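Quick one:
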Amino acid sequence: MSRIGRMPIAIPAGVEVKLDGNTVSVKGPKGELTRTVHQNMKVEVNGAEVTVTRPNDDKENRSLHGLTRTLIANMIKGVTDGFSKELEVNGVGYRASVEGNKLVLNVGYSHPVEMPLPDGIKAEVNDKKITISGIDNQKVGQFAAEVREQRPPEPYKGKGIKYMDEHIRRKEGKAGKGA
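Output:
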């Protein structure tokens, strides 16, 4: 049986979980999230816990079991604490700023790159650090990946946009003239 899937999810105080068929709605202090789960997965709310069960041990159901439980746990964590990703801008003249509902990146192109912020996503810029936050884990991660994609870090000088906890494997430059 799935080790992750069989663990119950604790519902913190101030969070409300509603079930409507295959649709799970979670409402908390930071907002509300709704997700439709696969019809094979059975979600139950027992007091202050949510449990996910599967009908049998078919391969598809086994893989969906842990996924469904994790998605619901992320919804509960999102409406209570929220999610955030931190990116770092490295490079001479590289900078980022937030203008209205857009993230503007100056990362070595002939023009600034303007990225509109998706609904429910906030961005903050402090010096060379970009913090992307929101209640939906998938949206936060996707937008952070799109920002990083504008100028991925290169291995020679380390210029570009990288995650704060990411380690860039550095390469040595040209060897120069022979010995």
